[in-house]
Fold:
Amino acid sequence: MAVTVGQKAPDFTLIDTGRKYTSLSQFAGKKVVLAFYPGAFTAICEKEMCTLRDSLADFNTAKAQVLGISVDSPFANKGFGEKNGITFPLLSDYTRYVSAQYCGLTNNFANMVGLSVANRSVFVIDANGIVTYVWISETPGIEPPYDEVKKAIA
Structure:
């Protein structure tokens, strides 16, 4: 069951690349862009996170915080972030609980039986904690509509 537009965004606490806990509630009063990505070091995920990185000026102007979330370990996310110069937090949902709650999971990712990853998705949450935009792809190879995301935070 995915999170929908108009719903209060469920709070969560995940570990960042420095193994510190980060909660959605820490960003109360600020717009938040949650970008769930299937896997660090995969081509489409690199392109997506780098596109978001390159759009940070737009997000900053809109006073929006970007958070990347994957089921990868904090160690993999750290290497991925360093390789790609990602300056926004990358959070590890290694239990898959938050991903399942927000956007659902893709099972047997890349034909690897038993590997489940977050569906590629983007959620925009307003300063009051209400979800104002949702995009979820059940096909990992599709990138989000970046212009729609930028409009949603404007």
Observations:
- The beta strands are 13-15, 21-23, 31-36, 64-70, 90-92, 105-106, 117-118, 121-125, 131-136.
- The domain at 13-153 is CATH 3.40.30.10 (Glutaredoxin).
